[in-house]
């Protein structure tokens, strides 16, 4: 699914108005109707509703919503912040229409602020995604007042004061419990720094013209089930293990063989045909017992990887899970990178070693996959002042070194060598547990070995990883979820993509 910036979304509105065709005010009615349909499922008519409107089209949405809620039997009070003498045309038309039905109060100063009862549902329709400067004056003062109230706050399209797709939002932003947007998510919803403002967000379709989406380019994408299903390749009836690739995982060190076990099991569950493991000698018995489906080779060193294995027979190689950062291990990684002739997967200690030795970056094979978490990425680059700058660093790193970078976290973000960003929608906070990243490395390596392109490997892999975590969470809850649960639910995740029933859906 393509993500668009605020300017493109306005263009999409205009394209729909011209090509459906539909009037601007009727498109506003359509969006507001979708909002109200959600609202009446969430809140009862016993709760008072206060609607706060700005003077532009977001305020126009608020006026339509207020009228529709009045018709639905809600006790609604409407307030307009009079921060300017100008209004949009659609706001004015809806204001005139509403004034004939009920009273609309104006807020000119602090003396006009209403007392908001605790059980009130507040609808924030002050500013939309077109805002491009921090709030000031009356608007800033009122948002500060609103954020100190105990009411439930629902923002229309985007919390007032929040910029949709650029840095620079002021410190005064409405803190919404729910944000109801239309047709396409805003980039701001996907960034950790905005979580306290956005709350739980939902995007409602409002029938914007599909031709605009088809013909308009974007560098931002949302990885959803439909995208993952389009990439998934079911197996043919006469397939054999040789059709699904040979993978080599170089992993483990003394005290960290658990990472090797998790990555190996995940790689197998991701469908690789033949899996080989290269581990320190101390890991031989552990891996032979824990992962009998894999072949195990050992380094001459007892506790750490020091000597590069032969790499020529493998379709995919991964390095890093639990290997530690000893000096000899650093030399091992340098030798492996120099000898690799195809993209590999680099995670965990491999990334930490590269961060300590910046010259190693030049030896990373083009189109390799790196899977850092936030701190690992900061070591590879530098700390960002905000999430928008971090996205820029992510894009620049992927382009400069011609690699794919999966920045792990909520909405794990994939940056590609050609400047695209993909945001993953699957997954949950229960996956914030030790070993979850090792599982992702195994999944990515298994898919890469099967012949998926590096980009398709990343898109499909992060979605499968998150989906398996979601399925595991349904069984054991988020608090009790451990990395092994993600591995054990990969089969059900594949079933969901293939359209086959899972154990959960059969229950």
Name the poorly predicted regions.
502-507
State the helicity in percent bands.
Answer: 40-55%
**Extended strand count:** 18
Oligomer: single chain
As a percent range, the share of strand residues is 5-15%
Count helical runs: 19
* Approximate shape: elongated
Largest sheet: 11 strands, mixed
Let me know the average pLDDT: 96
Quickly give the structural class.
Answer: alpha/beta
Strand order of the largest sheet: 1-9-18-17-16-15-14-13-10-11-12
Q: Please tell me how large the radius of gyration is.
A: 26 Å
End-to-end separation in angstroms reads 31 Å
Explain what the structure shows:
With 507 residues, the chain is of the alpha/beta class. Helix content is 40%, strand content 15%. The protein has helices at residues 6-19, 24-42, 57-71, 89-99, 137-146, 195-198, 210-215, 225-231, 257-269, 284-290, 327-339, 349-356, 374-380, 387-401, 436-449, 454-476, 483-488, 490-498, 503-506, and strands at residues 2-3, 49-53, 76-81, 104-107, 121-125, 152-156, 178-182, 200-204, 220-223, 246-250, 274-279, 295-298, 316-319, 345-346, 369-370, 404-407, 413-415, 421-424. The strands form 2 sheets. It has an 11-stranded mixed β-sheet. It has a 7-stranded parallel β-sheet with strand order 4-3-2-5-6-7-8. Helix 11 links the parallel strand 13 and strand 14 (345-346). Helix 3 (57-71) runs parallel beside helix 4 (89-99), helix 8 packs across helix 16 and helix 12 (349-356) packs parallel to helix 13. It starts with a strand and ends with a helix.
């Amino acid at each position: 699914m393509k993500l668009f910036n605020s300017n493109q979304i306005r263009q999409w509105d205009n394209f729909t108005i011209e090509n459906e065709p539909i009037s601007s005010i009727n498109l506003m009615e359509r969006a507001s109707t979708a909002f109200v349909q959600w609202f009446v499922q969430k809140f009862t008519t016993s709760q008072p509703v206060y609607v706060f409107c700005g003077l532009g089209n977001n305020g126009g949405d608020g006026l339509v919503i207020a009228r529709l809620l009045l018709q639905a039997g809600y006790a609604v009070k409407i307030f307009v912040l009079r921060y300017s003498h100008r209004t949009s045309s659609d706001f004015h038309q809806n204001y005139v229409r509403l004034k004939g039905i009920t009273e609309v109060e104006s807020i000119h100063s602090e003396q006009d602020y209403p007392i908001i009862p605790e059980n009130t549902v507040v609808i924030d329709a002050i500013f939309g995604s077109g805002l491009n400067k921090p709030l000031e004056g009356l608007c800033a003062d009122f948002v500060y007042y609103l954020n100190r109230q105990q009411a439930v706050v629902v923002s229309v399209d985007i919390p007032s004061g929040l910029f949709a797709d650029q840095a620079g939002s002021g410190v005064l932003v409405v803190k919404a419990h729910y944000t109801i947007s239309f047709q396409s998510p805003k980039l701001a919803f996907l960034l950790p720094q905005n979580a306290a403002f956005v709350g739980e967000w939902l995007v409602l379709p409002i029938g914007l013209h599909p031709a605009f989406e088809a013909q308009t380019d974007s560098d931002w994408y949302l990885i959803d089930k439909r995208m993952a299903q389009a990439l998934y390749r079911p197996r043919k009836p006469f397939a054999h293990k040789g059709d699904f690739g040979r993978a080599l995982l170089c992993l483990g060190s003394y005290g960290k063989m658990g990472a090797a076990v998790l990555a190996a099991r995940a790689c197998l569950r991701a469908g690789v045909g033949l899996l080989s493991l290269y581990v320190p000698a101390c890991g031989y018995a552990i891996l032979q017992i824990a992962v009998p489906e894999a072949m195990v080779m050992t380094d001459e060193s007892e506790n750490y990887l020091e000597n590069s294995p032969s790499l020529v027979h493998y379709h995919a190689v991964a390095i890093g899970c639990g290997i530690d950062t000893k000096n000899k291990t650093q030399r091992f990684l340098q030798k492996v990178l120099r000898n690799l002739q195809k993209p590999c997967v680099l995670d965990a200690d491999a990334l930490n070693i590269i961060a300590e030795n910046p010259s190693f970056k030049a030896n990373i094979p083009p189109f390799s996959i790196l899977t850092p978490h936030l701190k690992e990425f900061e070591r590879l680059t530098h700390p960002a002042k905000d999430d928008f700058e971090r996205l820029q660093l992510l894009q620049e790193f992927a382009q400069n070194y011609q690699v794919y970078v999966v920045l792990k976290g909520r909405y794990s973000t994939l940056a590609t060598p050609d400047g695209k960003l993909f945001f993953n929608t699957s997954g949950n906070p229960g996956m914030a547990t030790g070993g979850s990243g090792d599982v992702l490395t195994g999944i990515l390596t298994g898919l890469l070995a099967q012949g998926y392109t590096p980009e398709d490997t990343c898109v499909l892999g992060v979605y499968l990883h998150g989906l398996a975590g979601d399925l595991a969470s349904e069984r054991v809850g988020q608090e009790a979820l451990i990395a092994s649960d993600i591995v054990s639910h990969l089969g059900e995740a594949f079933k969901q993509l293939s359209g086959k029933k899972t154990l959960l859906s059969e229950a």
